[in-house]
Design a protein that fits this description.
Blueprint: H1 2-22, E1 26-38, E2 41-44, E3 49-54, E4 57-69, E5 73-84, E6 89-94, E7 97-99, E8 102-119, E9 125-143, E10 148-167, E11 172-192, E12 195-215
Antiparallel strand pairs: 1-4, 1-12, 2-3, 2-12, 3-6, 4-5, 5-8, 6-7, 8-9, 9-10, 10-11, 11-12
Organism: Hyphococcus flavus
Domain Outer membrane protein beta-barrel: 8-216
Signal peptide: 1-22
C-alpha cells in the first residue's frame, strides 16, 4: 500500500510539474496612446433621427493581464480601461435635413475584459489578435440650437483587436494595434422645443495606438 501511495504521489508530482513548465503564467502591465476615429453616429427616437460624424480625437488605455503558454501561441487574459475623446461635430443632419451643431460630441470611458492570442515565431515581431467585452460610460454634448443631448449613459460594449508586438528585452516590448470598438444602445435624454424624449445612442470608433508593455 505504501509503495502504491508513493508511486501515485510521484506520478502526480511529475504531471503537475510538467504542467507548470508548460504554462508561462507571466503577468504584464501595458499602456497605450493614439488617435480615435469614429464611424457615422446615430441618435434615434420615434420622431427624431440625428446623423453626424466627429473629427478625430485622442485615445489612451491601460491594461494588466496574464499570459498562458499554449505551445505555438500565447493566450492572454487582460483587464483594460480606456478613454476615447469626443470631437467637433461635422456632417450633421436631423430627420434627413442638413444642419449645424456644436458641442464636444461623444466621449467614452470603457472597462473591458480582453482575450488575445499571440502568434509566436523566431523573430522579435509577434502578431496578435483578439477581442473583448465590457461596459462603457458615454458622455454626449450635442446641440443644434433647437435640440440638444447633454447626458451620460452606461452600456454594453465590445471590441476587436489586431496588432503586432515588438520585443525589446526579456521584460519590455512595444506594440501597435488597430481596435474597433462598439457600444450598444445607450439610452439618453433629448431636450427639444417640444419637450424631452428618450433616445438610443449608438457609438462606434476605430483607434490606432502605440504602447509599451512590461512583463513581471
Amino acid at each position: 500500500m505504501l509503495k502504491r501511495a508513493s508511486s501515485l504521489a510521484l506520478s502526480i508530482s511529475l504531471i503537475t510539474g510538467g504542467a507548470a513548465q508548460a504554462e508561462d503564467n507571466s503577468w504584464y502591465a501595458s499602456g497605450q496612446f493614439g488617435v480615435r476615429a469614429v464611424e457615422r453616429e446615430e441618435i434615434r427616437a420615434p420622431s427624431v433621427d440625428i446623423d453626424f460624424e466627429l473629427h478625430n480625437g485622442l485615445y489612451a488605455s491601460g491594461a494588466i493581464g496574464k499570459i498562458f503558454d499554449a505551445g505555438g501561441v500565447n493566450f492572454r487574459l487582460e483587464a483594460e480601461a480606456a478613454w476615447r475623446e469626443g470631437g467637433d461635430i461635422r456632417d450633421f443632419n436631423i430627420n434627413g435635413v442638413d444642419g449645424a451643431a456644436i458641442g464636444d460630441g461623444i466621449s467614452a470611458v470603457s472597462f473591458m475584459a480582453n482575450g488575445i492570442i499571440d502568434i509566436k515565431n523566431r523573430s522579435r515581431f509577434t502578431p496578435y489578435f483578439g477581442g473583448g467585452i465590457g461596459v462603457a460610460k458615454l458622455s454626449a454634448d450635442i446641440s443644434d440650437g433647437a435640440n440638444m443631448v447633454m447626458d451620460k449613459a452606461t452600456s454594453l460594449s465590445a471590441q476587436g483587436i489586431v496588432g503586432v508586438d515588438i520585443g525589446l528585452s526579456e521584460n519590455f516590448s512595444v506594440f501597435t494595434d488597430l481596435r474597433y470598438f462598439k457600444s450598444f444602445n445607450a439610452t439618453m435624454t433629448l431636450q427639444g422645443t417640444s419637450g424631452t424624449a428618450d433616445v438610443d445612442v449608438d457609438y462606434d470608433a476605430y483607434t490606432f495606438g502605440v504602447g509599451l508593455k512590461y512583463k513581471f
